[in-house]
Specification:
Layout (H helix, E strand, L loop, with lengths): L7 H21 L3 H8 L3 H9 L6 H11 L3 H6 L8 H10 L35
Organism: Gluconobacter kondonii
Pfam families: HTH_3
Protein name: HTH cro/C1-type domain-containing protein
């Protein structure tokens, strides 16, 4: 047993991570037991993580990211990354309107010669290219 109580902020973070894992898993793999089996963990472990009662290891986060085709940024911080999480973002927004989707490509790019993490938005067919 720990000598000191865990700060509430860490408990809140743990629950938020569990919720995002659950949301992504439900979209890709509705059967929690099957997902746990494929990840090599016990179903009760995955259940506790999704409920926020247990923190996932960094190795499990990496495996979940790969298996669920979602970025670790989404699982850990709730940040959706450009094209990496594009399909997931649209599906999550439809199911969870409380989730705020932030478009990184909306920020002004001050130096066009500097590579960016996000691609330019696609051009509309009626736009002229100069």
């Amino acid at each position: 047993m720990a000598k000191h109580k865990r700060p509430d902020s860490l408990t809140t973070l743990q629950r938020a991570i569990g919720t995002r894992i659950s949301w992504a898993r439900e979209l890709v793999m509705p059967n929690q037991s099957e997902c746990a089996r494929l990840l090599g963990v016990d179903a009760s472990t995955l259940n506790k993580i999704e409920r926020g009662d247990r923190a996932p290891s960094v190795f499990l986060i990496a495996a979940l990211s790969n298996r669920l085709r979602v970025s670790t940024d989404f699982l850990l911080k709730g940040v959706l990354n450009g094209r990496t999480d594009e399909e997931l973002a649209l599906r999550l927004a439809a199911l969870h309107p409380e989730l705020v989707l932030q478009r990184q490509d909306m920020a002004p790019n001050t130096d066009r010669n500097t590579p960016s993490d996000t691609p330019d938005p696609p051009k509309r067919p009626d736009e002229e290219i100069h």
